[in-house]
Every structure is written in structure tokens, then in C-alpha cells.
Amino acid sequence: MPHTDPLLPAHRLAQGEGGSAALGALLATAVTALANGAAERGGPVPAGPPGELAARWEAQLGTPLPEHGTGATAALAEVTRLLAAGAADPADPACAGHLHCPPLAVAVAADMAASALNPSLDSWDQAPAATTVERSVVAALAGLAGYDPATASGVVTTGGTESNLMGLLLARDHTVTRHFGVSAARTGIPSGARLRVLCSRAAHFSLARAAGFIGLGEDAVIAVPTDSGHRMDPSALDAELTALRRRGELPVAIVATAGTTDLGAVDPLPRIAAIAAAHGTRLHVDAAYGGGALFSDRLRPLLAGLAEADTITLDLHKLGWQPVAAGVFLTRERAAFDPLDRQVAYLNPEDDEAAGYTSLLGHSLRTTRRPDAAKIAVTLKALGRTGLGTLVDRCHDLARHAADTITAHPRLTLYAPPTLSTVVFRYVPADAPEDVVDAVNARLRRRLLREGLAVVGRTTAPDPTTGREAVQLKLTLLNPDTEPRTVDALLAAVVRAGERETP
User: Fold this and answer.
1) DSSP assignment string, 349-379
2) Residue that finishes a domain, picked among 337, 369, 401
3) 328 has which bridge partners?
4) If residue 412 lies in a helix (H) or strand (E), which one and from where to where?
């Protein structure tokens, strides 16, 4: 028989009749279930081999589509508890493997409100106030980046990958129109056009994928050498631009990185911007990670020259403490969005637009789009620039403390001084050959996961002396409430795991 719940029927709408009362009760249920699941987990990540964990969760979940429902309260409590018990919890200080931030409570609450109202930003009449909120948030962040908010534009995205795709897409269309007099969006890339994208060897992998998506091909991406600080070498960039023009190839864009995923390295933006201008090439800056430095008085100078970029990627579900997703794509000029502009009869007819019912349809690669700007707006207003800057600085302080602890330990080796909040290092057993060191670091990380003790990142980086790619460990410190002694305890756990995994 179908389950009946007289207080909380599962079909109750969040904003319909009785919806507010039902929503309040369900939120209380969810909060309790989160706490119960976290207590069951008992650490940053559930302990156990992944296959056994998956089997346990599948058994607990049962069929997700029963013939008859179990009721709203029971279903919510069951699935929420399971998610929390099986989470890699970024709020736990020992969960420090990825650019995966613990979200602010105020942002989560704002996200809930946006979900309850469920506006869609593809037309004004689906999202009247939300349309204004997104425009205002974009203008504020454009101003923070150094653009003129009166002439700049932008859009909230799903993250750095979508924003980088948009940056290359608009650069492609600009370049093809300028050099061939046609629209790549409408007629395609002209036959024989040899288009190229230049970025550093440390740039994000999404750029190569984006080049493939927009018809350039991943092989069109030219990796420019980096200097000893893992930043793009401007001299090598200038030489590469000169060489590709001699080969009859056409640069679509230079992509500079402000905050590489592993080391947080920031390319020399002023010099790269000057080279882009000299060669008449568009500049996109991927500041998905490093863009958070704009909030900090201490770290903001790292991003000098950012405003010279034609387009910028930001990502506030990193150093912005937002629930996923909270990416932002900015353009210095509104006209950059022209290739995406569309008039659709059922969404934004021309006479509605002329009457002031303007939509954001032509700013995004998506049609239906949730109001992720709302949680960003709440956070910006609640904390202000200086409040967010304090959180950024706390994470930077933790990274510097971790680096000092690593440097002082005889069995740990720091790869490079931290720039933002990531720390790359490795455990080095005494008198072990390099292949053994690699294997021990890989195994100790899995041991920490299997025992539910910590989430530590893993990457590879070239040995400064030999150039050999070596396995490295990584702490990504995005929890501003973490204490230095907790970081020390995490590093001590790494050492113990390394000792146990050393042959």
C-alpha cells in the first residue's frame, strides 16, 4: 500500500499551499540526518575498501524507485544519512586532497532558498529578480577584477571548465570573424584555417578538451614552457607566437593561468598581456583557483595585470566557499557575447526585449539555468571583500605553516614554497630508490583513505634535478577554521602511513 504521511506528504510543493511548513520540517529532518551520517562516518572519509563500501551503500539504499513511496520524511532521512556517512567531508580538516571547499552555512541556506523558488535564467518571465541579481553580482566581480562594470559583462557558470570553454569559444569566433570575415558559429571554421591556442605546460586540462569541443582539435593547443616557478615563460611565448605565424598558423588566444591546480602558480600576467597586445592576440586568464586572491589585500598583487585580459575565469566554489556550482565567466566588453545571442520566440521575443523584459539567454551555453548567483550575492553581502579576504589569508597561513612543518621533518620533502593554499610534498623513506619512493607515496595515500583517516591529494611533478616525473602528495587547505596543530597531526598521519608502507 502507498505510504501516507499526514504531516509531510511527499507531493507537497516547496512553495505551494502548506509548503513553507513542510519545508521547515523537512530541513530539520535533513540537518538531523546529516549529523547522524557524520557521526556514523566518524572521520573525513568512510573507512573500508571501495568495493565493500559501494556494496554496503547499495544494500542500504535498496531500489531507488520502489512501487510505492516510503514518504517524504523517511526517504529524506535515509538518503541524507547515507550521503553523509559516505561523504568525503571537506569540512573535516583532514579532508585536504582537492580544490573542494567546505561551503559557508549562509551560502547553503541561500542555495536552499533558490532551489525552493526554482527560477530559470533563460527568460525574464521565469526569473525576474534573479536576472537582476546575476547582473549585479557579475558587475561587482567584474569591478573586483579591474574591469569597468559599465562596459564589462559576464555570466555565472558551472565552474572553470565551462568558463574556459566559453573563453576559447568566443576567442575562436572573434578571430575567425576578424581574419576571414565569417561567423564560425554559423558557417564553421574556414577550410585551411590553422588555428592555435597557447597556454603553459601547467595549464588546466580543460583547455585541451575545450579546443576539441569547438572544432580546433586538442592538438591545436601549444604548451609553452614554464620557468623554475612553474609559470609560463614570456620569452618562450613570444618566440612561439612568432614561429607559428611563420608556419602560417593563426593564434586564437593565449591562456594564462592564475593559480595552477597543483602549485597555485600565477603566470606573469603583465608581461603576457603585453605580448598578447603586441601580437594582436586575445588573452584569456584562467583564474578559477587564484581569483580568490582578489579578496585578499596580501595576495591581490599576485593578480596584477588581470584587467588586461579579454576574458576571465573565476570559480567561487574554491576560494569563495560556495556550494557547487559557482563559476563565473567575465568579459571586458559586452559585445564579446554577440556570437551567443539568440532570439527565441517562446523565451525572448524581440518586442519583449525592446519593452525591457531582457533575458540572459545569450550569455550562456545553457538554456535552463538555476540562479547560482543568489548564494554568491548573499555571501558577498554577508562577508564583504575584507571578510572573504580574511578567510583567504587564513588558508594561505595554513599552507605556509604546513610548508614549514614539512621542511623541518627529516622524512618529508617540500616540492616548492606555497603560493596560495596548496602544498606539494612527498614522504621519502631512508635510502630508498626513486621507484620505491613513488610506490610508497601512492600506497600511503590509499592507506589513509582505506582507514578513513585522511584525504590527501596525489599528483606528479618533474624532479628539479633530473626532470623525471615523480609521485607527489598534495594538501589543498581550504578550511579556514583548521588549526595549525591539526595540520601537524595530518602530516604526522602521513608519516606513520609512509612508515607502514615502506618495504
Assistant:
1) -HHHHHTT---SGGG-S-SS---THHHHHHH
2) 369
3) 156, 314
4) strand 412-414
Q: Domain of 453: which CATH number?
A: 3.90.1150.170
DSSP state of 249: -
CA–CA gap between residue 440 and residue 113 (Å, rounded): 47
Same domain, 237 and 355: yes
1 — pLDDT class (breaks 50, 70, 90): very low
**What is the grid cell recorded at 437?**
619512493
* DSSP structure class, residue 151: T
**Grid cell locating 111:** 542555495
- Residue 369, C-beta contacts closer than 8 angstroms, at least 6 positions apart: 120, 121, 122, 156, 360
Which is nearest to 33 in space by CA: 88, 93, 74?
74
Domain presence at residue 92: no
Sheet holding 422-427, edge to edge: 95-96, 455-462, 469-476, 422-427, 412-414
What is the torsion angle, in degrees rounded to the nearest 10, for the CA atoms of residue 324, residue 325, residue 329 and residue 334?
-140
Q: Which three cell numbers stand for residue 91?
A: 569540512
For residues 362 and 427, membership in a common domain is answered with no
Residue 11 lies in a domain: no
Q: What is the CA radius of gyration of the chain?
A: 25
The pTM of the full predicted model, rounded to 2 decimals, is 0.96
What per-residue confidence (pLDDT) applies to 8? 58
8 A C-beta contact, residue 288 and residue 266: no
Residues 432 and 484 in one domain: yes
Q: Are residues 357 and 255 in the same domain?
A: yes
List all residues 6 or more positions away from 279 whose beta carbon is below 8 Å from its beta carbon: 238, 241, 245, 251
| Judgement on whether residues 237 and 324 belong to the same structural domain of the protein | yes
Regarding whether 266 and 165 lie in a shared domain, the answer is: yes
Which three cell numbers, joined as nine digits, stand for 387? 571578510
Q: Are residues 210 and 323 in the same domain?
A: yes
What would the 3-class secondary structure string for 207-244 be? Answer: HHHHHHHCCCCHHHEEEECECCCCCECHHHHHHHHHHH
CATH no. for residue 168? 3.40.640.10
Give Cβ neighbours of residue 367 (< 8 Å, ≥ 6 apart).
122, 347, 361
Q: Are residues 281 and 352 in the same domain?
A: yes
- Give the per-residue pLDDT at 12: 81
For the stretch 125-183, pLDDT in tens is 999 999 999 999 999 999 999 999 999 999 999 999 999 999 999 999 999 999 999 99
Q: Which domain holds residue 218?
A: 120-369
Q: Are 250 and 195 in contact (CB under 8 A)?
A: yes
Q: Is 217 inside a domain boundary?
A: yes
Half-sphere exposure of 80 (CA within 13 A, CB side): 17
3-state SS assignment for residue 281: coil
